[in-house]
């Protein structure tokens, strides 16, 4: 077991953090207990590239207790909780993660995790999956290929039964691989499960993104004009939570159906050019690049705050901001001030990286319980069915969604209605 973390002496603190998270994750506790007895993953190697948080730790320990050999790398240079990483290193997890990784260190960590020769990959954003596929297809562009080639062979994909993907961004990349005919093994898009995106993306990101902004700035949301770019499940959650805090919310959305939905949900809908002049706080959640760029920065009020809730730090064009700024200075650990030629000052949070993880602790444990319950069951599904699956992007069966929901409801003490045999028959019949 290898590891590279910031400070192994932080492990006792990490242990307490993980225990706190597990107390609030009844679905994963249930699965962990069951898997610990059955050992369904015995002899299986899992390489994971995920945000190293206390919730992720509960998932990794669940997989370990199920019999798997697990190696973990960070899926964002700023999202690692160092005490948690240290604790996992003492618990038999090969982990390569620390907060503040440089770009080459980040990709080296991914390659080191993959060097165990995985049967299953678990990804959060697609960086692990893309590295493996670049090596396999001989696509030599990018630092991920250069560093991956130092640690991994080009035939690494041959031993992989399948993979899982946690995020919207990652699923987009996987579907592009599939469309190009380059996807080499089946991948389950955990993000597309209802008990993931309807809860994690909406309630989890909605709350934790605002939490990150508040921790970094301590501003008052009430009365602010908050611009939310993107009205997918993440954007919906952010918009509704900002509205709940008393903000006036403007939604920027290119999809006409989503834009219409935002309008009828009671939000002002506009393009970014118009919104740039009105916003006090800007939060991107699109999965696309250059959503806010030079022409928008120059229109913004002095004091405007910029935050990103998308997976990669490409939605706010930091390169444009760096290029046009007269000067910049660090206000605190997670806020940088940029002085523009028009003498206005803009404030960028966490380098434009995932604000909820870089400036806060990520999603609440209660909601990650659902997402990681999906992850654990997806691994078992892949082991059971991988021989019959083609290299495609799959969704988990609806029966697993319902199973996770039932476990969660039982833990919450919630009773739901049961259909009578007559009602079931009525719903299954075409005749009245």
TrEMBL record:
Cofactor(s) needed by this chain: NAD(+)
Any single GO CC term annotated in Swiss-Prot or TrEMBL for this entry:
cytosol
Task: Return the CDD domains for the record.
Answer: SAHH
Keywords of the record, alphabetical order, are:
Cytoplasm, Hydrolase, NAD, One-carbon metabolism
According to its UniProt entry, the protein's GO biological process terms are: L-homocysteine biosynthetic process; one-carbon metabolic process; S-adenosylmethionine cycle
Q: Which reaction does it catalyse?
A: S-adenosyl-L-homocysteine + H2O = L-homocysteine + adenosine
- Alphabetized GO MF terms: adenosylhomocysteinase activity
Cofactor binding, per record: Binds 1 NAD(+) per subunit.
Is the keyword NAD in the record?
yes
Q: Where does substrate bind?
A: 53, 124, 166, 196, 200
Residue ranges annotated for the S-adenosyl-L-homocysteine hydrolase NAD binding domain, each copy included: 201-362
Q: Which residues bind NAD(+)?
A: 167-169, 201, 230-237, 253, 288, 309-311, 356, 363
Give a yes or no for keyword Lipid metabolism in this entry: no
Q: Which family does it belong to?
A: Belongs to the adenosylhomocysteinase family.
What is the name of this protein? Answer: Adenosylhomocysteinase
**Upper classification of the organism:** Archaea, Thermoproteota, Thermoprotei, Thermofilales, Thermofilaceae
């Amino acid at each position: 077991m290898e590891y590279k973390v910031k400070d192994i002496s932080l492990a006792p603190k990490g242990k307490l953090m993980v225990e706190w998270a597990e107390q609030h994750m009844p679905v994963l506790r249930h699965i962990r207990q069951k898997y610990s007895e059955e050992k369904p993953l015995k002899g299986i190697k899992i390489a994971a590239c995920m945000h190293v948080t206390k919730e992720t730790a509960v998932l990794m320990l669940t997989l370990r207790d199920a019999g798997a050999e697990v190696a973990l790398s960070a899926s964002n240079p700023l999202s690692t909780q160092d005490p948690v990483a240290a604790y996992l290193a003492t618990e038999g997890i090969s982990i390569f993660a620390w907060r503040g990784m440089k770009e080459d260190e980040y990709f080296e960590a991914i390659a080191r995790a993959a060097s165990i020769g995985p049967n299953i990959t678990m990804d959060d954003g697609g960086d692990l999956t893309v590295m493996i596929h670049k090596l396999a297809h001989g696509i030599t562009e990018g630092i991920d290929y250069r560093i991956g080639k130092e640690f991994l062979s080009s035939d690494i994909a041959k031993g992989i039964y399948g993979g899982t993907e946690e995020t919207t961004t990652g699923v987009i990349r996987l579907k592009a691989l599939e469309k190009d005919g380059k996807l080499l093994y089946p991948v389950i898009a955990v993000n597309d499960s209802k008990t993931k995106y309807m809860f994690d993306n909406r309630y989890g990101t909605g709350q934790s993104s605002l939490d990150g902004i508040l921790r970094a700035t301590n501003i008052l949301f009430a009365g602010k004009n908050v611009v939310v770019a993107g009205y997918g499940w993440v954007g919906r959650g952010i918009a509704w939570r900002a509205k709940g805090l008393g903000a006036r919310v403007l939604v920027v959305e290119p999809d006409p159906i989503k834009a219409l939905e935002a309008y009828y949900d009671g939000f002002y809908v506009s393009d970014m050019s118009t919104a740039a002049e009105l916003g006090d706080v800007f939060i991107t959640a699109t999965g696309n690049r250059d959503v806010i760029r030079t022409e928008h920065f120059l229109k913004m009020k002095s004091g405007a705050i910029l935050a990103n809730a998308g997976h990669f730090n490409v939605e706010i064009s930091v390169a444009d901001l760096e290029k046009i700024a007269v000067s910049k200075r660090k206000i605190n650990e997670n806020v940088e001030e940029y002085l523009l030629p028009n003498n206005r000052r803009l404030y960028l949070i966490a380098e434009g990286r995932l604000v909820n993880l870089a400036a806060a602790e990520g999603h609440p444990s209660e909601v990650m319980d659902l997402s990681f319950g999906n992850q654990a069951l997806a691994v078992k599904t892949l082991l059971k069915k991988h021989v019959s699956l083609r290299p495609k992007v799959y969704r988990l069966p609806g029966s697993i969604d319902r199973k996770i929901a039932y476990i969660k409801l039982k833990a919450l003490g919630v009773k739901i209605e049961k259909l009578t045999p007559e009602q079931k028959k009525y719903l299954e019949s075409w005749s009245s």
